Structures are given as structure tokens and as C-alpha cells.
Amino acid sequence: MQEDSFWPTCQRPNGLIPARRLDPKGVEGPTRGQVRGRAWTRVAPGLYAPTDRPSCVEQRILEQSRRVGDGTNGGAVTGWAALRWRGGGFFDGIGQAGEPLPIPLLVGVGNPRPAPGSVLSFEQLAPSEREWVDGLWLTTVQRAVFDEMRRVGSEQHRLQTIEMAAAARLTSVRLQAAYVAHRPAWTGVPGVRKALAVASDTNRSPRETWMHRLWRELGLPPVLSNRSVYDLRGHLVGMPDLFDVTAGVVGEYQGAHHKAREQHRCDVAREERFRNLGIEVFELVAGDSEAVAKQRMLDARARAKFQAPDARPWTLEPPPWVAQPETLDHYLERTGRAAHLTHR
Q: Model-level pTM?
């Protein structure tokens, strides 16, 4: 997943080109003679795409989706690729070393050959867990999140998966936990449950997920994420990535977009507003090790004022002229998405 990009959603690019099978007439696909030239590239067994096709992750997803057929065999694209096709911005298909990840496919009827570009799974897939989305058969959101949370055996990855799916407003922690409750015997479920027990609907980037995980590992009290803080006159002070209400400590992860001059100016002004109200601030940046990050958290808490609730010059209650923020679960209910997500 991307580390420093801010936006949890993305728009699917235009101009994507589906992969084609050989066609002796050259109408529905290339001929055998055409694929011997440079104009066509083999992307999977029996599938070809134009060499000058778009170079983006959505193009790769579209190409490999043909491996599960036209829908009659019961297969589907799943995991991060299904979430990306639905607009999950942080599911970019890039691995930890910068390598393109193979497209995860759930195979229905048939026995396709393993090939570069995709990874095949033969786990069961109920008809109710697949749907046609803009030209592709995908697993449902909850099944895709479930499969992706089990793909990599690390707590960080499991937390990032559910929290970035929530950030994209595709599902919520509560709804995902309800889904997983009906799958007690599946491979990887204990780790998924552990992550769901501490995951948040309000983290907005993988680095925020990382920061909150380190805070918990220190055994420190629970904190809020992306919650608006106001002064007593009702002015917005800021919406920190991490806020320890008890101690009065704010934590911020400064990604690449914070290096721009105007953004940096805003960041400095916001930090000054927090400090003027007696709130201690720490920052983490790209390249900070877990040990460095944890020590910075502990140092900030050691400097904190721990103001008594009735003496705090700040509040979490919005002024009367500011509407209460809508929870993710309420949004999913209001838009009708929750009813679709709660099936078993």
C-alpha cells in the first residue's frame, strides 16, 4: 500500500483495454500472426493485450480478471484488487519492496494454470459473495477485505486493510467483525479477529494505522484519531492524527505532502495553536524506525500537562453552529450500503 499519499479513494482511469483471446478472423481478438509481432503482449495463458495499453494497476486487474471467465464458472477477483476496482485508493497493488503484486483470483469451476500476473485460490466462494461491478466479477467488499487481511501474516497489514477499506467508505469495522463471526474455522481467522478488535474507522492513511499500533504496543491509554479539537470560543484548533485526551498529547505523521511550502506553513500554525492551549505535540516522518517513534511518544507524554478536565482550555464538543460528524456506520446505513454488506 502507498505510505505517504493522503487520499483514501481514487477514480478509475479511462481508456482501459480488456485482454483478448485469439480470434482466427481478427475481430474479437488478435490472430496468431498478429501476436507474433510487437503490437500485442501475452498477459496470461491464452490472453493478449495491446502493447501500448495503459500502464496502471486497474489495467492489470482488468487483464487478469478474464482468467475467471465470463461469470459462468463462479470465479472472481478478490483481495486488494477487488477493493481497488471499487475505488480504494491505498490498495495500489505495490508490495513492500516496490514490486507489482499479482492479482488475487478466486477460482470457481475449472483448473486454470498458475501464471505470472495473478495468484489463484481455490477456497470456496458462495454465489452471494460475488457480484458484477463495472465489467468485472468481484468478490463482495467484505469477502475481499477478509481475503486481503489473511494474505499477509502481519498485524500491520491486517490493520491497514480494514482501516483503509473503512477510510474509502467501503465497509466498517463493526460490519466486518459481524461478517467474520460467521467464519470461525477459516484459515487466518484468529489474526483477523485480533486486528478487528483494535481497528478504527477513523484512521485515514497506512502511516496513521502504524502510529496507532505503536502507541498500543507501549501499553498507553486509548486515543482518538482524526477528531476535531476546539478552543472554548468554538474555533477549530485542529484534527490530529492521534489525540491522547487524558495527557493532552497530539501525534502527527508528516507525509510527503506536508513538505510543500503552504502545507508546512499550515502545519506550523496548527502546532502553535495546540501548544498555546497546553497540548503537547510530537511528529513522525518517513524513515522513523519503530524504536524512534515509540521513544518520541513516550517523551511527549512525559512533557504533557495532564490538565484536569474542568481546567482544559479546549474541548471535543463542536460549537452549536457545527454539525456533529456522521459516523461511518451511519453513512453506510443512510446510503443503503450496510444492508448489502451484512449478508453472510
A: 0.92
